[in-house]
Structure formats: C-alpha cells, structure tokens
What does this fold into?
Amino acid sequence: MNSIRFHPSRSSAAFWSACGIAAVFLLIGLAAAHHMETAGHWVTGMTNRVVWGMPHVFAVFLIVSASGALNVASLASVFGRSDYKPLSRLSGLLAIGLLVGGLSVLVLDLGRPDRLIVAMTHYNFRSIFAWNIFLYTGFLGIVAVYLWMMFEPRMNRFVGGVGGVAFVWRLILTTGTGSIFGFLVARDTFYSALLAPLFIAMSLAFGTAMTLLLGELVLRLKGETMSEDLVRKLARLLGYFVLSVAFFVMVSHLTNLYAASRQNVSLFLLLSGGLYTFLFWIGQIVLGTLVPAVLLLGRRLNSSGPILLSAGLVVMGGLVQLYVLIIGGQAFQMSIVSGFSESRALFDGVVASYRSSLPEWGLGIGGFALAVLIFLVGTRVLPFLPAQSPSQ
Amino acid sequence: MRNCRKRAGDILHASALFVLLGLGVIPSPHADVVTPQVPAARGEQCVEPVEIMRRDHFEFITHQRDLTVHQGIRTPRYSLAGCINCHATKTAAGEYLPVNAQGEFCETCHTYAAVKIDCFSCHATVPTSKISQSP
Amino acid sequence: MSRPDSHSAAPPRRAFFTQAGAGVALLALAPGVRLVELALARSDDEPVTSANRWGLLIDTDKCQSGCTECVSACNEEHGIVGHGRPETDAQWIRKVDLKDDQTGHELSIPVLCQHCEEPPCVDVCPTGASFRRNDGIVLVDKHICIGCRYCMMACPFQARSFIHEDLSGQLTHAPRGKGVVESCTLCVHRIDKGEQPACVEACHKEGHHALVFGDLKDSDSELATLNSTVATRELRPELALKTSVRYTSF
It folds into this structure.
C-alpha cells in the first residue's frame, strides 16, 4: 500500500488532443439533445411503439459499466486482493465518469428535461425508477467518499468498510437497473427475475472491459502502460464474466422455448427477427462472447494486443446485446388478446419498425464522450494513475 | 504604523464607495421606471385584487390545478380557462388573440419580469368554442 | 358570458341548469342514462370519491369492422390531429381486427386505456404523474410528467401516446403538449359534468350501440346489470388488472 505511488496525467499534446476529441463529441451530443428538445422527438426514430431507442442503449450500457468498473477497487478493498490496488483509484474515477455520462443521456432524452427538479422532488416509491434515482445519486456520493478514503492517508483504514458499502450498493443499483425492465409485467420479452442477475453479470463484464480500455488509454497518453500482470489478471476475469453473461442469456432463452406460451419470444430473437437475429448471433454471441472468451481464456496471453481487442469486442457486443434486449424487446409485438392474431398495421400484430436516427446516436455518443472527458480530466487534476513500477 | 494609516484610508474609500453606490441604487420616488403595457381585460374586476394577483396569481393557479386534476374540483374562480375568458383580447374582426402572443396580457408582464410561462405549451391560449364553466 | 361576480353568486343554480340541459340532450342519445343519475351528479366544488367507479362495456358483436366512429369522435373531442406520421401520432383509442388462430373467427374491437384497478402505468411512474382518480379513472397529471415514457413501456395495452412535436390550437378542456405522455381520460371533463364519453355518444349516434358507459358500483345501472347477466371478460385477464373496461361476445 505504501509502496504504490500515484501520479496525475501528464499535460502533453496527446493528452489534450484526446480531451479535445472527447469534447467535440460531447458538443455534438449537446447539440443533438437541443435539437430533440426544441423540435420534439419526432426527429428521432423513437415512436409510440418503440419508445426507448439508441440513447437508452448507450445510457444503460454506461450505467451498467459504471457499476462494474468499481469492481477492480472492490477486489482490492473488499476481497483483499492487494495486487489490484494500483488500479483502485482509477476504478473509482471511471465509475463516476461512466455513471454521470449515462445519466446525462437519460436526462437529456426526457420529453421535459426542464422538469428535472420535479423528478427530484416528487417520488412514487412503487416505481423502481424512483428508487434508481436515489441509488444513482447515492452511488456518486459513496464513490466520492470511497476515493477520499483512498487518497487521504489518515483515512486509509476505512477503505475496507466504505468499500464494502460501495460493493453492496453496486449490487442493489445494478439489480435496480435490471429490474427497470424485469418488472414490466406487460411484456414477455422483459418480465423476468433473471434480468437482475443478468445485469450484474453484464456490469462485471462491461466494467472490466472499460477499465482495461480506458485505463490503458490514459496510461499510454502518459507514455506508460498498465502492468502486464494486472492486464493478464483482468483479462482472465473478463473471460469468466463474459461467459457468465452468456449463461444467463442461454438460460432465459431455454426457459422461454420450453413454454408454448412464451416460445415465440425467443424464436423471434433467435430465428425470425431479421436484424435482431443477426445482431444477436453475430454481434452478441460470436463477436461479443465467443471470440473474446477464446482470446482471453486461451493459453497464450502474453501480449496486450489480443486482450485489448477482446475488451473492445466485449464493449461492442455489450452495446449490441442491449440493442437486442431493449429495442428488440419493444419491437416484438405484444399479444393483447391471447389466442388471436391481431391485425392493425403499425400498432398491433406486427413487429414494430425502428430506425435509429442521427440525433439519437449523437446523444448516446455524447454521453460516452462525457464519461471519457470526466475520466481524463480527473486524472489530470488528482493523482489517480499508478506509477510504473521499476520491475516492469 | 504605516499599515494602520493605510488601513484607515482603505476603510474610508470603501465606505465612500458604498454610500455612493447606495444612493445610486435606491430609486428616488420621481425616477422614470418602465412598466409593462398590459392590455385591459373584459369584465368588471378580477377574482382577486390586482396587488394580490400580481404577486400570487401562480399560487392560485398551481393550487387549483392539483385540485382539478386529482380531485375533479372544477370551481371556475381560479381556473386557467376562467382567466383566459376575460384576459384574451379580441381583434376588430372579433377573433381572439392568444394571451401569450406579443403584447398580450400574459406575455407583457412575463417578458418584463423575465419569467418563462410553461402553461401554454399545453393549455389553450384563447377561449375555445367547446368551453363550459369548467376548465 | 359575464364574469366573476356572477359566478360566486349562483354556481349551484347554473350547474343545475347545465346538467338538466345536458340530461335532456342525453335522453335522446343514450337511453341507458337516467335523469336520476344526473341529479345526483357531483357539483363543481366537491372532490371525487370512490362511491362511483366509471366503466365501459364493449359488445364485440355490435362493433363493426371498418367503422372507426369512436376513434374520430375521440380525435375531434380532444383536438387530436395527425401530422402524417402514424408511428408517432397520438391515438387514444384504436380499432383492432382480431382473428382466432384456431377457428378463424373474426371480430373487431376498440382498444383504449382500460382504466385498471391495478394499473402498471401508475406503479412505474417515477414522479407519480400517472395516477388513478378515486372514481377509477386513470389519468396523467401533465404538470408533473417528465416525459420518460416508462409508463408506455409498462402498459399492457399500448394505450399511451407520447407527444412528439409542438402543438397549437388546443381545446380548453383537453390541454395537451409536447414532451408529455397522454392517454384516454374516459372523457373525464364530460363525466364530471354528468355526460358520457365522446366515443360512447358517437357509437350510439351511429346506431351500433356497442359501447355502454356507466357506474360499475351502481347495481341499478345498465352497465352493472349487463355485467352481472352476460358473460364479460377483461383483456389479458392473466395479468389480474381488474379493468374498468370489459368486453363481451368473445
């Protein structure tokens, strides 16, 4: 603990260029949000059938990864794995950045974002959404305290305790996020107790992937690299997490397929869903699960190239998975009268069409950019980055 | 020694500044203050005296809206539709002008006070033909 | 119409004349509604209670495929206009044509907000804007709706619409605007005056009489009598929502 030195990022051309690129995408995102708010949501691809679109795919990804990104710090503080300690400060900052990025996308997509103060003062506690507002803001506060415990030597002895609180909070938060969808009794494509553990598994996978990618990025901007030992360990973890996600996906589809009343849901996603089927098999399973698992858990793990590639594939696969889950889940027609086929174009009896629009992509990527910007600038302001140890 | 004198000088300067600023800030009773030109309403008087309405009209509207939406209480006194009935002006041709249009009742004071009105993204800005006593 | 002082002077008298006038008009259009019900109608300053529970019964035998009078009446009543974008245009009621997968039997039904007793939309709304009034009508308080559309995800009937563009020319009794969610209000502005919903009136006027409106808690009402004598069902009964809107003949 005392032997680990921490430094801020170095103020180099590369560093400020990276920040500049993030800032440009952030501005594009803000412009997209402004356009959506002034013109109205008709300029997006979201409709009365597919009410949540690309922005929500990005937002949920960012929020879920935020929870998982803190896992590295939890491994060090809560599970006693001191080999992860060099990354714990960075992990906390990344968690904050990702969460703020995700929340900003959600808020800016609201029909009435000017009523945010209403959302913060009127609560319906039967709504998991309302609980999530507390869980998210509480998470930011707890991680801030957690970081303080890490930074201030006199508070170091509390790191374990606060880390434990943060760990439990993360699990509740991710359960809450999964339950936003899992509590939707109306929709066979969502209503399931499995979504909570699935989201926890996703958070671990996406968070670890983002830690690998962004941790390596910020260290490379400083002219260093992440310790090979840590990269290999995180790679191994990432491989297991990715497989655990696949487990939950497989179990949920198998359970659906077993029931005559629910098999059409899984048959749609797995076979007849057109774009959704393609994205599921190629994007989520092959590129997002199998290839990374082979690369990460296979024998020769001596270079960071394949590991970072796998992390990138996991991130892409995660976005695809959320697209299939959230948008595919809405596109699939709801059966209002069981045993009857409904025909009324657009609304009943047909798979809803959804085409994502530029403002939605702009807003979603803008949220990503905000997360990266918070992370990068944070590493410049305070000593978050582990010093390269001489044995490397 | 020199510090004490310097500090006394500073205090004197600051006080002089404050006094001068104070004199400038407090308006004299005969100063020219721009007031909004509010179009006259039809009808004899408002449901409350003008001084109360100027300060508190939003309290009445906000309270009434909760009673109406949640409890179905549709007394006309503080209803928004009731306000518009009197305060919407008519053109010579007999057409109503929206109360939030340039120069009309709500807009003049709200622009003057720089307070954004939220009501009329949803609520009718003129009396409509299907109006009844209830909003 | 003269203004404020006359209102505080004689609201009960004016209210009575309005209701009586409406009652006479209604007798011609809706035989199921009696003057007695109107005389007992709540006055303007009384809060709504759970003594009533308003509901609809839809007879699918009488509902004609291809007829959309209820839809047109609702659109006209609330100033709902299309913008040429059917996927994002608002609709509070829609006609759905059904065909039995096993037998091929075809029918047509209107689908609207079912005004459930256990509404999923009310459960999920983070601000409490989606709420159920004491007399059973499920509404959106558009003053506190933030436009998150979670209720639209949760509705088992896809009954809610989000306003995707700026609106103008709204009617006084139907405030609606960009960025908030809305759905069928069971014509609450009419019910509070002792009248019937616009769709019910239109269906009667068209001669189909497929929609019956009334008080589910009044055992003497035509609605309650029908419900207890004829086989009726709610949509998606496995969800146990206890809807105010019920269907018969299928």
User: Anything to note?
Assistant: Chain A has a mean pLDDT of 94. The radius of gyration of chain A is 21 Å. Chain A touches chain C through 49 residues (CB under 8 Å). The first strand of chain A starts at residue 6 and ends at 7.
